[in-house]
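Researcher: Last one for today. Full complex below.
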Amino acid sequence: MTQACIRVAEPVLDGREAEYVLDCIQETWISSRGKYIERFEAMLAEYCGVAEAVVTNNGTTALHLALVAAGIQAGDEVILPTLTYVATANAIRYCGAIPVFVDSEARYLNVDVSRIEEAITPRTKAIMTVPLYGHPVDMAPIKEIADRHQLMVIEDSAEALGATYRGQQVGSLAKCSSFSFFGNKLITTGEGGAITTDDKDLATYMRFLRGQAVDPNRRYWHPEIGFNYRMTNVAAAIGVAQMERIQFHLQRRKRVSQWYFERLEQRQDLLQLPYAAPWADHSYWMYNVLIQPDVAVQRDAWMDELAKVGIETRPVFYPVHWMPAYQQYGGNFPVANDCSARGMNLPTHGKLTESDVDYVCNQVVSSLDRMSGRRKTSVRKAA
Ligand SMILES: *Cc1c(COP(=O)(O)O)cnc(C)c1O
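Model: Here's the assembly. Have a good evening.
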């Protein structure tokens, strides 16, 4: 009947993770000092091609730290897409700043660049970009707008480590870029985050704020309100082992996506497949599909059908302006609303085999055919 559950995401920890964690325990460096923290920061900075990386205890605190260090204050306005994970907006609210939502565009689900300028007011301080599911944003026109209006660009790149934009690594495209190392991300430290930047002074200031803003020359003296957003050496040890194999983790995701494309290409009557712009190298953190508008199937009912045959999926994020705490910042965002209602992430992780993807694709197509009353079919890999 149903085979064992195929999960939507799973970490792959088969490098030197266990060895490095054991090393932390044996040397008793388990708190937020130790060699793995600096090593992990250096590896991230080098990989992204920037001067500095500052690691934190999760991706949300990384975002908050970036915004505080960049000087975002109460009453400032920050532009962001409504189609994102709630953490992007929460970090803005933690600063007392006002989120100003913008609609997305339907092909790669990132912010609709043509709608940014109309959202700018005299109070706007920054544009936050979010490369969703691993597709980079079209940064050149965004930077042009930002420069013209003297705004900062800060990127929530939690989902796009490893992606490139016109050959440049995500993480090097904005004033600062934040990452998350939650268990379902491209690389994981359990919980963890980082900010990458080319600005060394900003990095120094972020490290200061991260550690309760303690005066470097006077212990227990705190000239500003800081945070405890430090990452542990144990988490960083896992991160170092993950970074040692980042090419492997990236290639696995791309291979899984390729298997999906080979099987689902022939059924674009049912599904809109992920789109990669010519200037983008998509990291395929999550393989995302949208039910075609003329296929009369409710996304949630479809997810339930797949769960019954052991396939875990996840919906495209609900637009943040739908959430009770954000309705007051709402507006008219038809594309985000529509993509959220029709969109779903298929299982995407490094442990999936080609036969897992075969099984998922056959179930995906047969359930949609059945539920929409279309012909009954299965899929085979294109010859
Ligand atoms: C994962 C993620 C974050 C941060 O998540 P944490 O769970 O706090 O590490 C932020 N923004 C986006 C878009 C994400 O996907």
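The first strand starts at residue 52 and ends at 56. The domain at 17-246 is CATH 3.40.640.10 (Aspartate Aminotransferase; domain 2).
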